[in-house]
Amino acid sequence: MKNLVLIGPPGSGKGTQSNILVEKKGYAHVSTGDLLRAEVSKGTELGQRIKSVMDLGELVSDDLVVELLKANIDLSSKQYIFDGFPRNVKQAEVLDQEILNGTAYVAVLLDVDIEKLINRIVNRRVSSDGKHIYNLVSNPPRKTGTCDVTGTHLIQREDDKEEVVRNRMDVYLREVGPMIEFYKNKNLLVTIDAEKEIDGVTEQIMNCIN
Ligand code: AMP
Question: Where are the domains of the chain?
């Protein structure tokens, strides 16, 4: 089984598919967004600086993200899903040369309509611990504004607000083209239709990891 690099705009289902593939295939999952949010929640000065970048939907510096990623993976004993990394060609090169460094992998691009995604993300609400995710349109909580499981107030992530989401999409669209070229040139890119239902997307991913 190959390491899996998941590429796709925010909200395209990278996290959902990762969770399923961890269950089904025994992958380890690493999300740089999660690693950064964990750093922010420590409340350190570094965390505050990271938060101010994330709240605007901009990219955190390559060096910092790479350092955080390297410190949190162990490729000698596990196969990974890289979720949210790389975000640009520089990171793709570091992943290829310094991190995966000859280990087999495939880059899967989750192809989806950006406007549909924006609509999905701005309607996303999460429990205060971030663990339970709702959608005001497609998966609303039973009681408005309250988590079904924890009973606590639902919140909107700062970077799920429309203006920020539009910026995150712009950042993605600016960086993704060269990254796709990078993987195409290496013959490592598989593009899949991620507008299908969840199981259908999982199946397409599973077809290209062996
Ligand atoms: P995500 O949870 O993947 O949507 O990431 C949330 C935010 O974390 C992004 O909007 C960026 O500000 C930051 N981030 C996550 N991954 C990276 C990365 N590989 N490089 C730079 N910034 C990142």
Answer: 3-112+162-209
Assigned CATH topology for domain 3-112+162-209? Rossmann fold (3.40.50)
Q: What is the pLDDT tens value at each position of the chain, 210 positions in all?
A: 999 999 999 889 898 899 899 999 999 999 999 999 999 999 999 999 999 999 888 999 999 999 999 999 999 889 999 999 999 999 999 999 999 999 999 999 999 999 989 998 999 999 988 778 898 988 899 999 999 999 999 999 888 999 999 999 999 999 999 999 999 999 999 999 998 888 999 999 999 999
What pTM, to 2 d.p., does this model score? 0.87
- Token reading at 8: 């796709």
Ligand 1 neighbourhood includes 8 CB (under 6 angstroms): no
Our answer to whether residue 131 is catalytic in this structure is no
Probe ligand 1: pick from 32, 66, 117, 175, max atoms within 8 Å of CB?
Answer: 32
**For residues 194 and 189, what is the distance between their CA atoms, to the nearest angstrom?**
15
Q: How far apart are CA 191 and CA 171, in angstroms?
A: 20
